[in-house]
Amino acid sequence: MILSLSKNYKLLTFLLFLTEVSIACFIKTGFIRHTLGDYLVVILLYCFIKIFIEGYSNLIAIGVLVFSFIIEFLQLFNVLDYLNIQNNIIRIILGTTFQTTDLVAYTLGILTILIIENSKE
Fold first, then answer.
1. Which of 40, 51, 99, 102 has its CA 20 to 30 A from that of 33?
2. pLDDT at position 36, please?
């Protein structure tokens, strides 16, 4: 594993983060809020990790997908309620409602990453 600081991934992470915050603040319903945001969030997580780690693109992408699926399935079992976590910021970040469409959006986001990263090689 090669540790580095990638300016390109740093810029992408920043732009994706601004996009996600804009979606969360200004769009309350619809496709962009419920699907595009989930599609972009896995790309955001991937880019954030890639700021620090050079190479291992496929492994990082799959790791982000697994992490996203775990978070989504924790929503299915209402883990935040079970743990009595009432903090609104944590509830917004982790989500509270399980939806299979989120799993599809995460998968499509990771497939996009894999296609782009593997076309570079």
1. 51
2. 96
Whether 121 maps to a domain, the answer reads no
This prediction has a pTM of 0.90
Q: How many domains does the chain have?
A: 1
> Which residue range is the domain that position 107 belongs to?
2-116
- pLDDT digit string (tens) for 72-114? 999 999 888 888 888 878 887 788 889 999 999 999 999 999 9
Residue 21: inside a domain, yes or no? yes
According to DSSP, the residues that pair with 3 across neighbouring strands are 53
| H/E run at residue 110 | helix 100-120
Q: Cα–Cα distance between 78 and 44 in angstroms, integer? A: 25
Q: What is the mean pLDDT of the chain?
A: 92
Distance CA 21, CA 111 (A): 23
Any domain includes 82: yes
